[in-house]
Design a protein that fits this description.
Aldehyde Dehydrogenase, Chain A, domain 1, six-stranded mixed β-sheet, binds nicotinamide-adenine-dinucleotide
Length: 486
């Protein structure tokens, strides 16, 4: 079994606490790694290393040299692509066909995008008139926040972590990362890459562990952590907000969702079915952007449900390392049990189970993994818990609607506001409905398609702030106003 150390000050180190926890392969249930659990003392070492780097070698580097080093990280990840891929698949169980085209390439690309962006960023400057006629120059400078605490989930471990670390470092900060306890491996590998490509010690640190009473909470409470960027559940976001309140730290939150898809009868039917199949079941439903509520215009409802059922039943569960596998397991036994509890709840709440609704029995070495069936429900009341609460598994509820106004009202009837997908062949309707959605991101006739320079984030319980492009740099910098009298 592998031992996974912390990564502090450019070195792989065991936890001072001597505590460890076990990591299991979600596809088989077999223990694969023993992970060192950081406590407050380890977190303090990491934060102090990050502070030394900030005020020492990283802060002293000319801006363009820092960005050149980050471009080196892109190459460093791509050189060890197969190791990153194997580690991500072992931790998450996601199919190789997904991880090899999404997780690892995007994990590398996040450094390139933000290094290029930071190289070309300008700030504002206003030549001012003054009463004596000499004038003044009033301008703004971007300065790094300091040591940033980065707390990540398990569903897209490398991708979502580098989505934060890339811009944070490009803006001149240093970081202490707390990966999910379920998926600690690629963050640790990235430490080795950072050292190999010459990123100074202490710029990038990794502390493993859990949330409350462990590394996560210690990081958010540390007085020398200037800001916290977090992706995860809304309830965890609320807990982190309480932790940072005493020090009034800025937060950036990417939280949960209960996203709607609206399918109008005038949509390209096959595109709407395959798009909804992807949006409901990608990564075994473990993407914050997944559609768990699907509203279909009544004239095509029965045909749509039948086609979605056929698509779901055509998904292929199997060894994540096989190219033909299109659906992996859930990430953990605990999460499998949570999703299974919604299978039971849906039946109690009166759902018609169109397909799935069970824990899946798998043959051979996969028998001990955390497998479930892709599941489609109909017939639930809009106020039932299965329609209101984020399940974060391969489930969706499909309900009919009669008018555009009704579809908009149904889609917006949630505390969350991450994203929505609209399927229609009517351009005016696309604009109208997109504008009416109470969410941060709307897709029309697509899903999970975006230019990384655009703002990403949710409203309501789905988050605070926007990441992506210059919006990320905005979070990871303070703007300093300087006025020079001439
Ligand atoms: P989670 O909230 O359980 O855990 C996320 C991270 O927070 C983990 O590293 C965990 O150890 C840490 N943590 C937990 N409690 C903490 C505390 N009190 N203090 C500090 N850290 C703490 O989320 P998860 O189960 O890993 O991820 C799934 C959730 O993430 C879903 O709700 C999903 O919608 C959401 N998500 C959102 C986005 C987005 O961009 N909006 C993206 C991916 C996932």
């Amino acid at each position: 079994m592998k031992n996974l150390n912390l990564w502090i000050d450019g070195k792989s180190v065991p936890a001072l606490s001597g505590r460890t926890f076990l990591l299991h392969d979600p596809a088989t249930g077999v223990a694969i790694s023993q992970v060192q659990e950081a406590q407050a003392a380890d977190v303090d070492l990491a934060v102090q290393a990050a502070r030394r780097a900030l005020h020492g070698p990283w802060g002293a580097l000319p801006h363009h040299e820092r960005l050149d080093l980050l471009m080196g990280v892109v190459d460093g990840i791509m050189r060890r692509f197969d190791e990153f891929l194997a580690a991500e698949i072992a931790d998450t169980g996601k199919p190789v066909g997904l991880a090899s085209v999404v997780d690892i390439p995007r994990g590398a690309a996040n450094f390139r995008i933000f290094a290029e962006m930071a190289r070309n960023l300008s700030t504002e400057c206003f030549p001012m008139d003054t009463p004596d006629g000499a004038g003044a120059l009033n301008y703004a400078l971007r300065v790094p926040l300091g040591v940033v605490g980065v707390i990540c989930p398990w569903n897209l471990p490398l991708l979502l972590m580098t989505w934060k670390v890339g811009p944070a470092l490009a803006a001149g900060n240093t970081v202490v990362v707390k990966p999910s306890e379920e998926t600690p491996s690629t963050a640790t590998l990235l430490g080795e890459v950072m050292a190999q490509v010459g990123i100074p010690d202490g710029v990038y640190n990794v502390v493993h562990g859990f949330g409350p009473g462990s590394a996560g909470e210690a990081l958010t409470r540390h007085p020398d952590v200037a800001a916290v960027t977090f992706t995860g559940e809304s309830a965890t976001g609320a807990a982190i907000m309480r932790s940072v309140a005493d020090h009034v730290k800025p937060v950036s939150f990417e939280l949960g969702g209960k996203n709607a898809s609206i399918v109008f009868a005038d949509a390209d039917f096959d595109a709407a079915v395959s798009g909804t199949l992807r949006s409901a079941f990608s990564n075994c439903g473990q993407v914050c952007l997944c559609s768990e509520r699907v509203y279909v215009e009544r004239p095509i409802f029965d045909r749509f449900v039948a086609a979605l059922k056929a698509g779901a039943e055509g998904l292929r569960r199997g060894d994540p390392l096989e190219a033909e596998t299109t659906m992996g397991p859930l990430v953990s036994a605990q999460h499998r049990d949570k999703v299974a509890s919604y299978f039971a709840l849906a039946r109690e709440e009166g759902a018609t189970v169109v397909t799935g609704g069970q824990v899946a029995q798998m043959p051979g070495k996969l028998a001990g993994g955390y497998w479930v069936e892709p599941t489609i429900w109909t017939g639930l009341a809009e106020d039932s818990r299965c329609v209101k609460e984020e399940v974060f598994g391969p489930v969706c509820h499909v309900a009919p609607f009669d008018t555009e106004q009704e579809a908009i009202a149904l889609a917006n009837d949630t505390e969350y506001g991450l994203c929505a997908a609209i399927w229609t062949g009517n351009l005016a309707r696309a604009h109208r409905v997109a504008a009416a959605m109470d969410v941060g991101i709307v897709w029309v006739n697509s899903w999970f398609l975006r230019d990384l320079r655009t703002p990403f984030g949710g409203t309501g319980r789905s988050g605070i702030g926007r990441e992506g492009g210059v919006h990320s740099i905005d979070f990871y910098t303070e703007l300093k106003n300087i006025c020079i009298k001439l």
